[in-house]
Amino acid sequence: MIEELLPDAVVTVEAYGHEDAPLYPEEAVLVARAVAKRRREFAAVRSCARRAMEKLGVPPQPILPGERGAPRWPAGLAGSMTHCDGYCAAALVRAGDLASLGIDAEIHGPLPEGVLPSVALPAEADRLRGLAAELPDIHGDRLLFSAKESVYKAWFPLTGKWLDFMEADIELTSDGTFRATLLVPGPWVGGRRISHFDGRWAAGRGLIATAIALPHD
Fold first, then answer.
1. Rounded CA gap, 9 and 15, in Å?
2. How far apart, in whole angstroms, are the C-alpha atoms of residue 104 and residue 83?
3. Residue 104, CB half-sphere, CA atoms under 13 Å: how many?
4. Residue 190 in contact with residue 99, Cβ under 8 Å?
5. CB contact at 8 A, 185 and 173
6. Consecutive sets of 10 residues in the chain, 217 residues long: mean pLDDT of each?
7. Is the whole model's pTM more than 0.85, yes or no?
């Protein structure tokens, strides 16, 4: 599903279910005390990422978290990973082909009660009501949450800074696209300051997924 949301230059690998996958020693130590579910998710999504590396001709290697937990990719690559119950995916691209990537997948159901006000601007909440009228089978609150996660994952490698949920105003459209307007100064990419991110979304197989592929110019 993620593959459909990204340009051809991006290599994606998805897995349904979290079977045990091998870890490098330096990865294993990071989750040695984690519960079994967390260890399986951690390993499964890295297995996806290593298979994506192989498709790009890059030798598989450890994927260790850097600042704020963002994955540290091999030199020359940009990427993003996501996992939720029963699903994980990794997307990788040569850094010369895209400036940044962000992907997210969530179980397609409503957000827990009371969560939406903490992630949605008033204008976003208003627009969700319009989206619900157009697409009554889509849980717009979960879609908005996923889009904000993808925005952050695309933002952080470019800035090294936190981006709050309330610092991007996302407009979701029924054609499977969205635009995230940054409410804080954006990063410089290709000699220009980015004011927004454009992304795509899809729903299926009990999941909702979002993705951003930011070009260099």
1. 20
2. 8
3. 21
4. yes
5. no
6. 94 88 94 93 95 96 90 96 94 97 97 94 96 96 98 96 96 97 96 96 96 95
7. yes
